[in-house]
Design a protein that fits this description.
CATH architecture of chain A: 3-Layer(aba) Sandwich
CATH topology of chain A: Rossmann fold
Radius of gyration of chain B: 34 Å
Number of domains of chain A: 1
Number of strands of chain B: 20
Largest sheet of chain A: 3 strands, parallel
CATH class of chain A: Alpha Beta
Strand content of chain A: 15-25%
Number of strands of chain A: 5
Largest sheet of chain B: 12 strands, mixed
Order of helices and strands of chain A: HEHHHEHEHEE
Radius of gyration of chain A: 16 Å
Shape of chain B: elongated
Strand content of chain B: 5-15%
Helix content of chain B: 55-70%
CATH superfamily of chain A: P-loop containing nucleotide triphosphate hydrolases
Number of helices of chain A: 6
Distance between the termini of chain A: 27 Å
Structural class of chain A: alpha/beta
Oligomer: heterodimer
Strand order of the largest sheet of chain A: 1-2-3
């Protein structure tokens, strides 16, 4: 869905986005299941990375990084290296990196998969709040029903096939 | 578990294992190749010393002792393969009449030779003209008397009338210095030169001549037993020397005072043993840093995968594996890497040796090769244990599982930086250099006649401290630059990384430890290559200059006595292909025309060339490769009687044994390893480091980084290491070369450096009245000019050589 892998058949189309993966990279932010921070960069630098790649100016980049870190409540972790962060903190920085990008769509792949329940819930709170603030859509893949319950619409996949779709309240 | 772990390692971490094994293989190969070279060199030196001696022992029968009994006793000594008695008697002088003029010499020596002597000791007498049997006259004597084979010579006898004999042939006595030695006398009491007047008589003739004289006067007859030994000698010249000297002393004791032993073989080995120590020094100087460097490289390669290893260790520990079992897995991993690296290194060592020394594997015997290969293999295992096992065990002991999972730490200042070990080492190097240079030390001390030899290992301390100190200082500088120089670094790498310049600089700054390590390793490899190349080039050029100084020209032709050399001879020689210039030099003719007092030295001018007794023609040309061809061409034209020597021959005689062994091969070997080490330091360390950080590079790729930008990041790191390593290595090499070559007391005497074509004659050569046309007003020989920048010809210590002159041994000698 994020364009990291080429489809074996057909194509992935997002309404309003370019069909060229490289062009739509800035419109889509990805939060990975496992730690995805560059070990040699601190929190602020990791957050700034997609902005720098997109050619955002230095001052704007600085502002957006500060804003994103503030948004997810990790401003105090800006100068910390990934190895100095806990799993939850690292995921929040990863979320900040996505938000700084100001994408129209955030894809989160099992974002709470490696976190304890409380930290996972907190991260989902942060994600929902932040995406709501920037007006981005959020797509989450999860096996956690408590996460599922927080989302408006859900789809079930079985053996690679989409089986059903439902809105919140229809989940049994 | 162990098998599963090993299988996993081989499948998943093939590259890292292979790279670490390659590092170990370099150390193993270097040790194996240089070690075998050392043993082979020593064996060559011993063989060379043995070959250089015509008569192993000269046993002189003391007055009053029975020569026959002494001969009988010597023959029964174990290890003695042949004996020949030689009688010696004094003559008041020799006289001959040729062309109406009578020439008379001063006192001389008459020798008695058995019919089998020349067969037993073929190196003692060289036939120049006439018959090999009968009365033989030494070359100089024949020149002094102006006689040829067939002429009559009168032998003066004190207290008896002269005995007249007919000359059958003229011979050269290549080992006259040892033949006419004062047996049993210390070196300082030996005659400064062998006698000029020597006549060799067959045993029967000698008995007649000496017997008649001894009946009326005491002619101081002496008898020597010349001995050839066949006892096996150690390959090590020092051990061989001790064995031969000991055997000589045993013989003297066995003969109970009835004879003295002149130990020519011992004297020859005496010089070689110091050369053997020089070879050992060379091994230490050139081999040890290389092996240390290879070990450091291995450590760097192993540590490049340390993060992953720690993470894996943590993983298996969390699954319940005890630290003991984890340690066992690390032992297995180290053994696997050590064995693979060792085997690879042995193959590499054999191949490198073949490349450097030719088809004979390093010139060493099979047993010495095997011993050194075993030592090298063991060293490889030790390096594997030190670089793979020890860090793993340390991590196991010191780190918690959580700590072990961390990949990148915030670099901290290491202990040696805090206390300034690098500054201390550099200061120590300068101090040792100054101290060792100011006390006229000698690197190798091998006193004549003393079995003990010693080496000044202090000589290595200065360069070693500088090498280590400068490397650590470079590490500090690289560390500082990467820590505080992010902005300039970002500007530098911007052409390669574009927008990612700041991020790249930040990443490199955080990765400064592995980057500085790779940079320092590269610098060490480059400095190792450059300093050893400088050292070897200096050594070889010095040996070349020594050879040219001793030979006098690229090729020297010495005609036999009696051969008349006219001006046309030089023109004839000049016509030989490859010859650039021919210069006639005339040697002294000692003439006596019935004058009562000592010899009169007359150096004939060019207009007297018809009277030259011995002509020397100096030849020069540019291409050394043509020397042998020209020498062969001239030999064909002038016949076997003309003695023709070239610089290549002179180098083997004049230079140290090391020069004659195969220094060029050693240089090739070192350079091959230096290049491999440099490539490994720069390339493999970087490649392994990048491979281990694949994931770090994958993240920016996911975030939209272009392939070009990622390539720029990797390239920036490579360039940083390469440029920093080149500059740092160049500076360290420069410092080492200054210390070794151009220090205030010149450990390597570099007079020949830059003067590849010096045709000079030693000052002593002139002082001794060599018979050259004589000094010009500027103190130089005519036709010879000092090299550019030199005002006078280079002085050479000259002594009557009991062995080839070694006055210019260049290596690490000070105060000379």
């Amino acid at each position: 869905m994020a364009g990291l892998e080429l489809p074996t058949r057909g194509e992935v189309i997002w309404p309003g986005f370019s069909t060229i993966p490289a062009e739509r990279a800035q419109d889509i932010g990805v939060v990975f299941q496992s730690p995805s921070l560059v070990p040699a960069l601190d929190g602020a630098e990791n957050t700034a990375l997609p902005l720098i790649l997109a050619g955002v100016g230095e001052q704007e980049c600085r502002d957006r990084v500060a804003e994103a870190l503030e948004l997810v409540g990790v401003s105090n972790l800006a100068a910390k290296l990934p190895e100095e962060l806990s799993g939850g903190q690292a995921q929040r920085v990863a979320v900040a990196r996505v938000l700084a990008q100001r994408p129209q769509l955030v894809l989160a792949d099992e974002p709470t998969g490696q976190l304890d329940h409380a930290t996972g819930q907190h991260l989902i709170d942060v994600l929902l709040d932040a995406t709501a603030r920037i007006g981005a859509a959020l797509v989450v893949t999860t096996h956690d029903r408590t996460v599922l319950e927080r989302l408006d619409t859900h789809w079930t996949m079985h053996e690679g096939r989409l089986r059903s779709a439902a809105t919140q309240g229809a989940i049994s | 578990m162990t098998i599963t772990w090993l299988g996993g390692l081989l499948r998943r971490h093939t590259g890292r294992l292979l790279a670490t094994a390659v590092g170990i293989s370099l150390a193993v190969a270097l040790i194996a190749a240089l070690g075998t070279f050392l043993t082979a060199s020593k064996a060559t030196m011993t063989a060379r010393a043995v070959r250089s001696v015509a008569v192993d022992w000269q046993v002189q029968v003391r007055p009053g002792a029975d020569p026959a009994a002494v001969l009988n006793a010597v023959t029964k000594i174990p290890g003695v393969t042949a004996t020949e008695p030689v009688g010696m008697a004094q003559t008041t002088g020799l006289e001959a009449t040729a062309g109406g003029a009578t020439q008379t010499t001063g006192p001389g020596l008459v020798l008695s030779l058995s019919p089998t002597y020349r067969h037993t000791f073929p190196g003692e007498i060289r036939q120049l003209s006439g018959s090999p049997t009968g009365v033989l006259l030494a070359q100089q004597t024949a020149a002094n008397l102006h006689v040829r084979p067939g002429d009559k010579v009168s032998i003066g006898r004190a207290g008896a009338g002269p005995a007249v004999v007919t000359v059958a042939g003229v011979v050269d006595l290549p080992q006259a210095d040892s033949l006419f030695q004062k047996v049993g006398a210390p070196p300082q009491s030996q005659p400064s030169a062998p006698p000029d007047n020597v006549i060799l008589l067959p045993e029967a003739t000698f008995n007649t001549v000496a017997g008649q004289a001894s009946s009326t006067a005491n002619l101081a007859l002496t008898t020597q037993i010349h001995v050839a030994r066949g006892a096996p000698l150690s390959n090590d010249p020092a051990a061989a020397y001790e064995s031969v000297i000991g055997a000589g002393h045993n013989l003297e004791a066995h003969l109970a005072g009835s004879a003295l032993v002149g130990n020519n073989l011992g004297a020859a080995l005496q010089g070689e043993r110091s050369d053997a120590l020089y070879a050992q020094m060379l091994f230490l100087f050139l081999g040890l840093p290389g092996a240390v460097l290879a070990a450091l490289l291995t450590a760097a390669l192993a540590s490049a995968g340390a993060d992953r290893r720690r993470a894996e260790q943590a993983l298996v520990r969390t699954r319940g594996l005890s630290p003991r079992k984890v340690a066992r897995l690390s032992v297995v991993e180290a053994l696997l890497i050590g064995t693979a690296g060792g085997l690879l290194g042995l193959g590499l060592g054999a191949a490198a040796g073949r490349l450097a020394f030719g088809p004979s594997p390093l010139g060493g015997s099979a047993s010495s090769t095997l011993i050194w290969f075993a030592i090298a293999f063991f060293a490889g295992l030790v390096i594997a244990m030190m670089t793979v096992l020890v860090p793993a065990l340390r991590d196991l002991r010191r780190r918690t599982v959580a700590q072990a999972r961390h990949a990148v730490g915030r670099p901290r200042t290491t202990w040696w930086m805090k206390i300034g070990v690098d500054f201390m080492l550099v200061a120590g190097a300068l101090l040792v250099f100054w101290a060792s240079g100011s006390n006229n030390y000698s690197l190798v001390l091998a006193p004549e006649g003393v079995a003990t030899i010693s080496v000044s290992y202090w000589a290595f301390l200065g360069p070693a401290l500088l090498w280590l100190g400068a490397a650590m200082l470079l590490w500090r500088i690289a560390n500082l630059a990467l820590t505080h120089g992010r902005r300039p670094l970002a500007r530098l790498i911007r052409p390669l990384t574009g927008r990612l310049a700041q991020i790249g600089a930040a990443s490199m700054s955080r990765q400064r430890r592995p980057l500085a390590r790779a940079l320092v390793l590269l610098a060490l490899a480059i400095s190792f290559a450059a300093s050893t190349a400088t050292f070897n080039a200096t050594y070889q050029q010095q040996a070349e200059a020594d050879a040219q100084l001793s030979n006098g020209a690229d090729v020297t032709v010495t005609e036999s006595p009696g051969v008349r050399v006219g001006p046309s001879a030089a023109a004839g020689m000049a016509s030989v292909s490859g010859v650039r210039h021919v210069e006639p030099i005339q040697h002294p003719v000692r003439l006596r025309r019935g004058r009562p007092a000592g010899p009169v030295w007359r150096a004939a001018g060019k207009h007297h060339q018809s009277h030259i007794a011995s002509g020397r023609l100096l030849r020069r040309w540019h291409r050394k490769s043509a020397q042998t061809a020209v020498a062969a061409d001239l030999q064909g034209r002038l016949g076997a009687a003309a003695a023709i020597t070239n610089v290549t021959q002179a180098r083997s005689q004049v230079g140290s044994s090391l020069t004659s062994v195969n220094l060029a091969g050693l240089t090739r070997l070192e350079l091959v390893f230096a290049v491999l080490l440099a490539a490994s330091a720069g390339g493999i360390v970087l490649a392994v480091g990048l491979a281990e950080r694949r994931r770090s590079l994958a993240i920016p790729s996911v975030l939209g980084a272009l392939r070009r930008q990622l390539r720029g990041l990797a390239l920036s790191e490579g360039l940083l290491i390469t440029v920093g390593g080149l500059i740092g290595g160049g500076l360290i090499a420069w410092g080492l070369s200054q210390m070794l070559v151009k220090g205030p007391h010149r450990r390597i005497r570099p007079a020949a450096v830059g003067h590849r074509d010096p045709v000079e004659l030693p000052d002593d050569h002139r002082r001794r009245g060599c018979g050259c046309p004589g000094p010009r007003g500027d103190g130089q020989h005519p036709g010879l000019s000092p090299p550019p920048g030199r005002r006078t010809a280079r002085p050479v210590r000259h002594r009557w050589p009991t062995r080839p002159q070694r006055g210019l041994r260049p290596w690490l000698r000070s105060g000379s």
